[in-house]
């Protein structure tokens, strides 16, 4: 809460004067996220950490720190905020507006109209389409800078920018809401999302992570972190995903899609076009990460936000054993052929508490997160399930038992999150079942299965265990755990990990129109 109160001091003052406000211990006027103009490094949520060599990327250590902060931390948010350009300028409060960061990576609009009438006549399903809107089917009453609009509509690709949609923005000759040109007026803030592959955790969390980062880019109102908003998915397929519970961290309302308003003209009071999952030099998926740096505050804040909003508990420990979770795959490829042998060998070490899991549709995503959050060493072969490392505790280690010749993917994600990463070091101590055959032809390391030497496997797990045991956060957690045992209230600890939740409790409820309740 202290970071939230720093951004909105009037809300902090309201809480200070309210005897029932539960956040009295959160008044630290200096605490800041890091992207605010007046934020000093010593007061920011996180400080870049670059203990390794930059390998010639830059000339100095400071340049290395600055580069990492801009590439994969709150510096990216800072730069998006600095880049904001007014594309369509209002004169009065009832006028429309449109502003975007460079290349239309992030945009927001007020009092604009979207015309979905043509969707009535489209027979094919819509996904990754760049022709949902035609010229003039999005616009508003404001002074449009057509030159800037054209210049920044330069990344024309479905998931790289909002150029495919906003290049069609036009100036109207009257105010659409005031003049009654809308079939529906949406009063609550609305986020439109163009999403990646919903069946793959790694790719779908590109969507969720960029949505979270966009909350910070858009941080201009006390309700910025409120879940009383709407999210529209920019496709006509009904959204279903094994990871759909994650949306609860962002909205308390049902999701919309392009079928919701088919055949209607819809006006939005506040419309946000968030950062997208496959931006050029973007966050998470296409991040050109400098060598030698780790521990992005933005990635940690995202994990904390999701865990807190989904109410995933950090459970009380009954002992000081290292909790080891081995992620098994029920797919055709990348199976660990001697998996049971490895699990038995782990269980022989009485310092470990070992669990083998399969994260599939039979295990709810919230249950998966609870297992992950209460894991000290997370083991799995290369695959989307390793994205769970985002939700490991700070002291944890991830052991990608084999990277299948894709060495950077989860290694980079682990260092962004600040989690210690291990992988197989000696390929002479593993056996590949066969060369592997890619669906498009040719040998491929991801399309086969593997057998691992037990002794070498245990050696690397031991290194991970040593890391966990010596981590100060783990020591502090065990000490706190012992203290909780003496107090013994309800048998478990629910750790407060988010600064934004419940901010709306110190806000007055806003009036809404009945048309908004759809």
From TrEMBL:
It catalyses: L-seryl-[protein] + UDP-N-acetyl-alpha-D-glucosamine = 3-O-(N-acetyl-beta-D-glucosaminyl)-L-seryl-[protein] + UDP + H(+); L-threonyl-[protein] + UDP-N-acetyl-alpha-D-glucosamine = 3-O-(N-acetyl-beta-D-glucosaminyl)-L-threonyl-[protein] + UDP + H(+). InterPro entries: Glyco_transf_61_cat, Glycosyltransferase_61. It comes from Vespula germanica. Residues 496-505 have a biased composition (Polar residues). Residues 489-518 are annotated as: Disordered. It holds the Pfam family Glyco_transf_61. The keyword Flavoprotein does not apply. Transmembrane segments: none annotated. One of its GO terms (cellular component) is endoplasmic reticulum lumen. Residues 272-398 form the Glycosyltransferase 61 catalytic domain. It is an enzyme of class 2 (transferase). Its EC number is 2.4.1.255. Keywords: Endoplasmic reticulum, Glycoprotein, Glycosyltransferase, Signal, Transferase. GO terms for molecular function: protein O-acetylglucosaminyltransferase activity. This is EGF domain-specific O-linked N-acetylglucosamine transferase. It comes from the Eukaryota.
